[in-house]
Every structure is written in C-alpha cells, then in structure tokens.
Specification:
One of its GO terms (molecular function) is lyase activity. This protein has 315 residues and is an alpha/beta fold. The protein is built from 14 helices and eight strands. Strand 3, helix 4 and strand 4 form a beta-alpha-beta unit. The longest helix has 17 residues. It is globular and about 80 Å long. The chain binds coenzyme A and zinc ion.
Length: 315
C-alpha cells in the first residue's frame, strides 16, 4: 500500500448531498441546528446547501434561509453547490465562502441531472467562474460520474482530465472527482488521481466517493496513497444523487475519520463530537439509520470481560 500525507482535510457534505435525497423534508431550523453542530467538529469545509431549482431539488428549496441562519465559524469554509448562473445570483445575495459548481463527465447524466447538454453546462460553469472571480469568490468544480456513469458505463480518464484542465485554466480553484454512484474501484482511483496529479497540484484535488458498492473506504485509501489530501464525506453515510439510478450514501464521515485516525493521520475532526451528532441523525431524517461505529464503538473502545471469567479462573 502506498503511504500518503500525514494531514488530510474533510469536507462535510451531509447538509447538501445527504439531505437532498431524504424523502422527509427536514425543517429549516433543524438544518441550521445540524450545520451549527457540524461547525464545532473541526471540518475544513461544510457544504451547506445547493442553490438549485426548487423543482429539481425540493428538499433544499430553503437554501437562502439556511445560509443566512447558520452561525459561521471563521475557520470553516461554508460552500454551496451551484448548477447555473441563477444559482450563483441567489448565493451571492446571501454570501457564501466558496462555490462548488457542478457538471457531469457523461452526456446522459448531465442531461438528466442538469437538463442541459455538457456543452451548455460547461459554458455556464465558465461564466460562473468569471463572475465569481469578479467577486473574489473561490470556485471549485465538481465533476460528476468521473469514475463511471449509471447510463453510459465507463468514462475515459482522458476525457475527465481534459475537463479538469480546462476549468483550472479558466480560474477554478479546485476540482472534485466525483464517484456519483459508487462505480469507482481502487486501481481506477489510483490511475485517475495519478493522471490528474501529473498536471494539477494535489492540494487542489478532492475525492467525492459514494459507498454504493462498499468500496468507498478502499477508494479513499487508494487516492490518499497517490497524494490526495481532500475528501468529501457525509455524516452517517447519508446522500445520493436523485438523478442517478441506484445512487446511495456517501462515504460515511465517521468511518473515514476513524480509519485515518487508526493510521495516525490527522483529519482535524473531533470524532466523539461527530458521533454524538450521528446518534441524532435518525431523528433529523425521520428514518432508522445504522452506523457500524455507533454499534461496535471505535476500535479501542473495549468492553468489560464476561462476569463469569473471574469466577472460572479464581481457583
Ligand atoms: N435556483 C432557483 N430557481 C432556478 C434555478 C436556480 N439555480 N435555475 C432555474 N431556476 C428556475 C427558473 O427561474 C425557472 O422558474 P420558472 O419556471 O418559475 O420561470 C425554472 O427553474 C426553470 O428554469 P430552467 O432554466 O429552464 O431550468 P431547468 O428546469 O432546465 O433546470 C437546473 C435546470 C440546472 C436549474 C436544474 O436541473 C437543477 O437545479 N438541477 C440540479 C440537480 C442537482 O442538484 N442534483 C444533485 C446534485 S449533483
Ligand atoms: Zn454525491
């Protein structure tokens, strides 16, 4: 296994990627309280919401109220997903620290998710980058389906790299390689990350992994080994794209933090505080959730020995 950096950054995306797909609407005040709690955990970034069409993503129609309602910790970068110029306008009106703009690497997913061709999306994104620069607003580009598309299958890595390079040349401050539906596998992650790092500084790259097929932690390790230091993750493993069949949860933040902590890699995240928040997630989303870490405890959380042991070995 390749060894990566000693320090990594975690971007918590549950308020956006997590809540966008939840069947029960989470009240605005509860979202604000959730984000305020996450702000105390030590995340580098929190993706607060998305400024998308309320018809496309009804669960996040309250983006402006949420953005205005949260307490902002100066050490946290509060970001939001933006699909078009209208979304940028709405975000600018309430103030965000960074935009996370999005398009897909595959034509079919882009059309399904954003109702635009890739060419139209690319033009919107280039226009957003230009306008964001005029407002001194950093602009990260999230490339969906970078590791495979649920409609088209494999995506040529050269095609993903070409998009990344075009956006970086246009002034994007970072690129997120998104495994939208958990199609990535470790050697593929190694390859795509290595190809990117040959052209783009590793510090500008983020991995966004879904655990749809149980490979998210393995993929995170593969990316870390290549030099990736920024990871998106969602508390409780919430999340999924409503326009991607079979999409399910993001890599769970608590599992990602726990894994890296076991390896003595610093994430900056307070795991106990995070687990307290995860405990309350079923009440927030009004459905049962299972979190293996809550069930089993962290690795060195030991249990009392069975009571009969003392008696049995007394003689
Ligand atoms: N915020 C709020 N409203 C928006 C908007 C935005 N960013 N963009 C468009 N709208 C409104 C328009 O004003 C228009 O409203 P009207 O019918 O009352 O006049 C309506 O939505 C349709 O506008 P149009 O430009 O034709 O958008 P569309 O219906 O083609 O949808 C997107 C395009 C990109 C706005 C929409 O597909 C979207 O928001 N997708 C995001 C999907 C997503 O977040 N997926 C998960 C994360 S990857
Ligand atoms: Zn996602």
């Amino acid at each position: 296994m390749k060894i990566g950096a000693d320090n990594i950054e975690i971007n918590e995306v549950a308020p956006r990627d997590g809540l966008q797909i939840e069947p029960q609407l989470v009240p605005t005040a509860d979202k604000i309280a959730f984000i305020d709690q996450l702000s105390t955990c030590g995340f580098r970034r929190i993706e607060v919401t998305s400024f998308t069409s309320p018809r496309a993503i009804p669960a996040l129609a309250d983006a402006q109220e949420v953005m205005q309602g949260i307490r902002r910790d100066p050490d946290v970068i509060y970001t939001a997903l933006i699909p078009n110029l209208k979304g940028l306008e709405r975000a600018l009106a309430v103030g965000i620290d960074e935009c996370n703009i999005v398009m897909s690497c595959s034509e079919t997913h882009n059309r399904a998710n954003l109702r635009m061709t890739r060419a139209q999306s690319k033009q919107q994104l280039l226009d957003i980058i230009e306008q964001a620069q005029a407002h001194n607003l950093p602009c990260n580009v999230s490339l969906s389906t970078a590791f495979g598309c649920p409609f088209e299958g494999d995506i040529a890595p050269e095609q993903v790299l070409a998009l990344s390079q075009e956006f970086m040349a246009a002034g994007a401050t970072g690129i997120t390689l998104c495994d939208t539906t958990g199609m990535a596998y470790p050697t593929q992650v190694t390859q795509l990350c290595a190809q990117h790092i040959a052209h783009i500084p590793a510090s500008a790259l983020t991995l966004h992994l879904h655990n749809t097929r149980g490979m998210a932690l393995a993929n995170a390790l593969a990316g870390w080994g290549e030099g990736i230091t920024r990871f998106d993750a969602a508390a409780g493993g919430l999340g999924g794209c409503p326009y991607a069949p079979g999409a399910s949860g993001n890599v769970s933040t608590e599992e990602l933090v726990h894994m890296f902590e076991c390896m003595w890699i610093n994430t900056g995240v307070n795991l106990n505080r995070l687990l307290d928040i995860v405990k309350d997630l079923p009440a927030l989303v009004q459905r049962p959730l299972s979190s293996p870490l809550l069930t089993a405890g962290t690795r060195l959380q030991t249990h009392p020995a069975p009571a009969w042991l003392a008696e049995h070995f007394a003689a």
